[in-house]
Amino acid sequence: MQKFLGLFLAFLLPTPLLAQKKLSAEEVRQDLVQVQSLLEKYYPGMYFYEYPKDFANRLDFLVPKDSVDLLSTYRRVSALISGVMDQHLSVVPPETNENPKYLPFILKRFDKHFYIQYNQSPDSSIARGSRILKIDSIDILEDYQRFSQLFGADNDNLYSKNYNLERRFSTYYHRWYGSKDSATIIIDTSSKTIPFLTAKEALTWTTKRYGQVIRKNLDYKVLDSTLHIAHLDLLSFRGKKKLNEREFKMTLKSRFKQIEKDSIQSLILDMRGNGGGAIVNVKRLLQCVLQEPFQLYDSISVTKNGFKKVFKPYLGITTIAGRAYLNKKNEQGFYRTYYNKGQAHKPNKKHNYKGNLVVLMDGGSYSATTFTIALLKNKERGIFVGTPPGGADWGSFAGLDYTAKLKNSGLKVRIPLMSLIHNTEGKKREDFFVQPDYHIEQSYSDFLERKDTVLGFALKLLQNEGNP
């Protein structure tokens, strides 16, 4: 709590965005209480990772003593929700600018120092590896710590927190400080005024400058033709067309057909930074790499009030279908178990990969990806390299969500409605998060030389037949 109080002093900083909209202390308190009411009513994970008294104490502390602007209110609501410790639970940030501008850098942290990994600005004199010390006279580590209040992580997973703070620092900077056109930045020993760019402008420069290193989903490459080692980059379990996952299905099928054609004996499945996607695609992947039937879930459940949001009562047929699917009931709500072996998914007969498997993971491996990693680990299918993934081994509060609007600020809160319990194959592990067999992170020297430490380790491991 002391750490939280210290970080929260930064809420007193001026906020340029939406400063014209003021909320009284009582209006902010009402919105915070509304958040608590909504979570207790719909969210299946309330008080799962923290005690009710801790939530109540945080809420009381976040009530301002005087009127505040909308951005400050957003910070307070975010701080309340981030303490629940669930990355699926979030607050939609306020925004009046349809085309906001961002700090044009993607950063990399080593110890307490921050370096430019990708320079997205037109200024080519700013080299990769340049160290950023301050932004508008504020130490970058201070900002880094403050921004951690804007989002949650499952059971406060530090690998997940650090991953998102590094990769999305520019986004959180905008959410914390609001709209800016530029900032004065201390880079190494010099001071520069850096113009901010729109997301489209930043992407243009990123593609132009780093096009060769931009990852592509389901990208396949043979790394060692002699030993038949290949790399499959799975960046997302979502295809380009969200309403139709046929494209993902067909691409995945063609990749494993090619893997078979190339007589691949060892496959590196790279799921670093994969934030999840469609569960149906998890099933499709597992059918390609497992050799025995499998279950995805132990159970799925939803609260009584959450059930009404998932299966709309006024539509009639959906309520009937919902009760047929979630066919068991308890005090909390409705649920379904998956212990019937006849419901198990069967592996593919064609293009089923039976060779060595190495799984790469990190703090950005979340949601459906954690789901996949946990099941592969339970099946003892593969060697796991990297850091623990962002999600919990047991499962998550995810699936469908409900977006509620707070009555005074108008801020929107996204609330996951379902509890998804991973299939454990009857195994129990002491660790809350799936642990890698080899804990590997990028070294500073490899960062400067643009070497992929984790992938390099996996390749060497396979080339040396399991001896790193």
From TrEMBL:
Signal keyword on record: yes
TM annotation in the entry: none
Pfam annotation, one family: Peptidase_S41
Organism: Leadbetterella byssophila (strain DSM 17132 / JCM 16389 / KACC 11308 / NBRC 106382 / 4M15)
InterPro entries for the chain: ClpP/crotonase-like_dom_sf (IPR029045), Tail-specific_protease (IPR005151)
Highest taxon in the source lineage: Bacteria
Entry keyword S-adenosyl-L-methionine: no
One BP term from GO: proteolysis
Keywords: Signal
Domain Tail specific protease: 229-396
Protein name in UniProt: Peptidase S41
